[in-house]
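Section: Multi-chain targets

For targets with more than one molecule, the full set of components is provided together so that the structure can be written out for the assembly as a whole rather than chain by chain. Components appear in the order listed by the source. The example entry contains two components.
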Amino acid sequence: MRTKTFGLITTISLIVIVVVLAVIPLIMVRDSEFGGADGQAEGEIAMLAPNYEPWFSPLIELPGGETESLLFALQAAIGAGVIGYFLGFKRGTKHASTVSNTNELGVGFESN
Amino acid sequence: MRNRIVILLVGVLTLVLLESRPAYAMHVMEGFLPPLWALVWFAVAIPFWAFGLRKITRLVHEQPEMRMMLGLAGAFAFVLSALKIPSVTGSSSHPTGTGLGAILFGPAVMSVLGTLVLLFQALLMAHGGLTTLGANAVSMAIVGPLIAWSVWRLFHTRLPMWLVVFFATSLANLSTYVVTSLQLALAFPDAVGGFVASFAKFGTIFAVTQIPLAISEGILTVLIMNALQQNAQAELHTLGVVRGEN
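Its structure, encoded as tokens over all components, is:
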């Protein structure tokens, strides 16, 4: 049994769903900055354990949101680059082997 | 039947609308687990790391052609955990991307790859932390992949591949945050209601935040798996992810 793969339309529709899932909250929830949720953890923990002092702090304190978003963008870019390279490489290899197969067949045919 | 679905939908929507206070999710921050709990989670994680490292060494040695595929699994987790997506509760959280690697290589291998992602974020971005690395690895790099792998193993011969991939990775994403709340509840039990009350508190809040993200994670993994089927059939075959004639 060979599993069928999706066509272009299904692929695009799925991407649209992911985008819509991210956009709906932006429209629905107006009075929020959509801050990283773990920033608000301090508040939660402070309520449950008012006397708790974090006993270790990050080795590198980033100066602000801009630098942090730079690093997040970098992280996504590196990952996306690797994925793109992999898929491009595989696609190219597959293409090349199809081309060389047809050539070999062609040569064989001529020699007959 | 139809009525029931409508009632359910309205219920969920009301919940979502009411529950628009900021939520806690994602990783446990640096220093925010007492030393004892930090140690406990490291102790849980270490056997998985050891086993995973051995599996990776063996895989690279026996099937060097899988190195690129291994890189892909790591890269996918890298990208997805960098995507902070807004959610219905008015805060942002992110997919984990660890379900794909778990389906391809099993949970042990993913425990190592997922921890590398966590390490990068802890060292460079002050996101998560070194003292909480064990705990965050257990939630994102161990329990999530274990769930994805189990769902995959149980259903991949019976149901369409995309469906199983979707559920395996969505549930992996959800379980990651269930474990995070569990860890926080254990370390910070409610003064009155104890662990259960605290867990319910962390759990109910993040569950709603995380549902759309879990769906996104499922869809994104289905998409990458589709691309792999189109371009890397041979590798999927070798790994036993797809079977039968090529």
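DSSP finds nine helices and two strands in chain B.
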